[in-house]
Amino acid sequence: MADYRGEKKRGKLGDLIYSSWNGRPYVRRRPATVANPQTEAQQSHRHAFAEISRLSSAMKVAHTEGLHWQALHQKLNTHSVFKSLNKDCYSSDGIDYSHIRISHGSVTGVSIESAEVNAQGIVEVKFTASPLSDGRNDQFFLYVFCPDLRDGRFAQPVTRSIGEVRANVPSEWQGHLLHLYAFMKDSKGRTSETIYVGLFHA
To answer: Given Cys at both, which of 5, 103, 160, 169 links 138, Cβ 3.0 to 4.6 Å?
Structure first.
């Protein structure tokens, strides 16, 4: 019901809607139809967006580290950048974890040579120890994520020249598929593209 007090109008009158914004009154015409179609494609898009949003929350510690530079320069938060980068990683088959990106940038990356869980239940990763003279102090970050338990762990970062890293993971992760995401970060906080490896914790 419209509320008219003095010259201020608020509410609906016919097909007009009276309101205010920043203390200034304005009027707009009510749309003939609501632009909220419940088509299968629209519902699928909403479901995908919701799933990636939930994944972003679960992997917050990862993208806070890996996407900080991009978020800072785009004047966004890392949650928004993560969703934008990974919006196409969900389909009717679920989330494609092999294409999830927790980092993004032009820093030179490395190649994963091997990844395994040792007898003590520790994830061990060996990577190419690049001899780049201008990137010898770059750090290698490894994030291990267990989607079944919606939990993840970072390994202690190491410099590019070390060539290997270990990550302690909970014993409860045994028997689950693990997703390993790695990236390089330089002294200015810039990162490489995400490097991915899938690993089963037998």
So the answer is: 160
